[in-house]
């Protein structure tokens, strides 16, 4: 295990930039004194905020190029490649100078810059039992069976780290009607997962969209198009419900009085559906991890993203993924080799 | 316009069978005296319920075979083909003896039996502005560009009937990240819809999962896999939110008191998220329509499904779809013919 966890920060990302990222890093350092930070961004804005213990464990690399929140990925690549704080933070991970990168920057630009092998974006989905991991929510489209199995392995390694379970339950997202042919790669991936009996994950079969929120699986595996649409449809529905609730409560004096009395309960409800928690995600690949914090987050939200990155490094997430994939490829001669499956 | 609207009923479908279907038909007849019913099912159960004006406009065809709610589609086909009340009701539409069929039966079996050409299942999605139509939510998987354009035409014809708008806004469900290649058929369908400028629909471009609930489009078009996952993820989230709300309200005495005071508001909220409204759907094809009522519905819910079927016939839904598709194929020589697009 490495002595220190080396975290690269895109200190200019997000709506607030350095004024959220630097205090966020400070909060996380108080919880994890064994972090070293590598900060990329505008020295004039960052240096004044870097004080005390944080300054002692940080190295600041100046760049005056920052990806804007409203830039299209193509624009961001054009003017931010090689030199923006986002690019440099990701590149530090690829070069091995950092173990993980954290950014609150523009998602599309991050996706374009973090070109990992076998990429996936994993997100946390709040459920009735706690949280589940869903992946891929948009890094790639139209996965074959091999990629779906990789996603199952990556997601369950992540679940072991985040949820502290030995064999996370893994479900493949599918539609529930027998006669309609489910997507062929999903069925093929189901067959492989059932037969391969991989260590470190418990394959529970297909699950439908309605079951995600029930928390029946710790890890929900989908190709990126359907996964993205699932999580965004759920997000939109949660917002819609909150809006109905607000309207309903404003309707009559009695309802308003009721709302005042039940205010603590409503506050708890808002907390449960907090987009700061759900929004964001983990950009995962076999050669790197970037934690995406929500663009509109505050220092506490950014610190939570740094904490997730820290946990993943401390628990050797990438090492575990590679180990399981090696096991799957080498030790199960009775199933087709990975390459043959992907037809 | 036909004198009468001829509606075939699977009188044995649903959890309650004839005891819901027959009173439901009666309710709808009171609103639409120009309906004629063709009922299929167990005469011993149906005949005693058929009284008064309903009896005068109904023809009852006896069969003692009924598809069970828990049967798999393959089982249902095996023992219900040619003779079950569900099969006979659908077949009456195909033979031209009825204009539309209504069933509260098992969805998978309906899908297997209603083998229309270019099939789609359309559902109503409650939004902040009212309701939108989403299709396809599971009749087919992996639509090509041609099928997506057909879905846009079918959905907008349905929106004209149900929402009484001249040019419904139509959006294609897609993921919002520019750099990732969206699904090729979705982009191709977008190009066709933009250039074809079809009468009777207003193409507004791609929409993301989060926007469905905002009601930005009257019609949301998707291939069946992602569409099914979207609507089920939203349904699950609505249930989850309702469950959080119940728990939060039970938490303290103050919250409970608040809940009592705001009860009318909560009742309204439940009404908005009523699964009787959202669950169910329209099985649409170029050669027939079947209205699927929720299996657990009551007579009022079943009557609402009959009303939808009535409206579609009275407004010549299928005729309008065929007309628009003809227009699209014949009058727009500057765009590729339908057959060439589907590559």
Describe this structure in words.
2 copies of one chain form a homodimer. The first copy, chain A, has 343 residues and is an alpha/beta fold. Chain A is 49% helix and 17% strand. Chain A contains 16 helices and 11 strands. In chain A, strands 3-2-1-4-11-10-5-6-9-7-8 form an 11-stranded mixed β-sheet, sandwiched between helices. In chain A, α4 (73-80) crosses α6, α7 packs across α8 and α7 (145-163) crosses α15. Chain A is globular and about 55 Å long. Residues 332-343 of chain A have low confidence and may be disordered. The interface between A and B is large, with 73 and 72 residues.
Summarize this, please?
Chain A is of the alpha/beta class. Chain A has helices spanning 18-31, 43-46, 52-56, 73-80, 85-95, 107-113, 145-163, 184-196, 209-212, 224-250, 253-261, 263-272, 275-278, 299-314, 317-330, 338-341, and strands at residues 5-10, 35-41, 58-62, 100-103, 120-127, 130-135, 169-173, 202-207, 219-221, 281-285, 288-292.
Q: Regions of chain A with pLDDT < 50 over 5+ consecutive residues?
A: 332-343
Shape of chain A: globular
Q: H/E order of the elements of chain A? A: EHEHHEHHEHEEHEHEHEHHHHEEHHH
Helical coverage of chain A, percent range: 40-55%
Work out the strand percent of chain A. 15-25%
Largest sheet of chain A: 11 strands, mixed
Q: If interface size is counted as residues with C-beta under 8 Å from the partner's C-beta, which chains form the largest one?
A: A-B, 73 and 72 residues
Output the strand order for the largest sheet of chain A: 3-2-1-4-11-10-5-6-9-7-8
Q: What is the β-strand count of chain A?
A: 11
